Amino acid sequence: MSRLGYILLITIVSCSLSASQPRRATEVKVMSFNIRHGLNLKEESNLRDILKIISDHKPDLIALQAVDSLVDKGKTQFQLRQIAVQTGMHYLYGVADRSENGSQGVGILSRWTFENTQSIALPTTQGADPKVLLCGLVNPVKGLTFRICSSRLEYASVMDRALQAAYINQMLVNSIQPVLIGMDMGARPNEQPYFSFRKNWQDAAQGSQMQTWNEGLPGDRLDYIFALLNNRVRVKNYKVLRNYPEVSDHYPILATIEFW
Q1: Which own/partner contact pairs does 109-114 have at CB distance under 8 Å and 24+ positions apart?
Q2: Sign of CA dihedral 4, 6, 8, 10
Q3: Alpha-carbon span 76 to 227, nearest angstrom
Q4: Is 247's pLDDT higher than 70?
Q5: Span 138-169, pLDDT tens digits
């Protein structure tokens, strides 16, 4: 066999072996958690407990809701930055509302740097509190780029919740990249705001009725992790982390997402 023929044979065999081996999935652990403005059920700081939850479960990405950045005695107590410094994660903060002593909104923590970011004001009716959708673009491994988003919808108005859910779906449903979103929807799966995500999104809980609001009744699932339907994305597992009942009035939720 000539040298050229030998090289061609080796190339064909190598390609055949590569094609026969299944592509390995990239797993990403995503947490979503309403941290109750940095206060536990005893109205004390819960940041140490939040750090313990992160240390125990080691998520790659965290969507946080009800995050504050407050000024006290001339010093800014920026909860998201404090968590980021202690965990070594990168962070994004989306301001929803401002007051005399600071601001409150939603945040994202990530093991990876953000290649692009976006904060979008959500529609509200007159008199309702401002709400935002916060998104960041991450690139965990070569060939994989996706959006991670965080939002908290209006609690006081069913109309506002439904309007905001429909708007988020409209903004993200045609994304070229895969999209993951952690959200405190403030609505159960049988209520109108959830219906905006039934057609084009995978609910990581896959029909679970396990409550995520610990002051509510069984079935009060108000917090969600969604993945935009895409043949490259699959939800591997989902958990409600119920062994931290005093940290917030919401339980953290955790999902493992596979990208192919």
Answers
A1: 109/54, 109/61, 109/62, 109/64, 109/80, 109/83, 109/84, 110/60, 110/61, 110/62, 110/136, 110/138, 110/148, 111/60, 111/61, 111/140, 112/60, 112/138, 112/139, 112/140, 113/138, 114/90, 114/138
A2: negative
A3: 35
A4: yes
A5: 999 999 999 999 999 999 899 999 999 999 99
Short-list 139, 173, 143, CA closest to 60: 139
Let me know: does 146 contact 232? Beta carbons within 8 Å: no
Whether the CB-CB separation of 48 and 54 falls below 8 Å is answered with no
Evaluate whether 166 touches 200 at the Cβ level (below 8 Å). no
State the amino acid at position 69 in one-letter form: S
In the block, residue with structure tokens 């060939």: 143
Distances (CA, A) of 71 to 79, 85, 206: 11, 19, 41
Please tell me what DSSP assigns to residue 25.
P
CA distance 35 to 55: 16
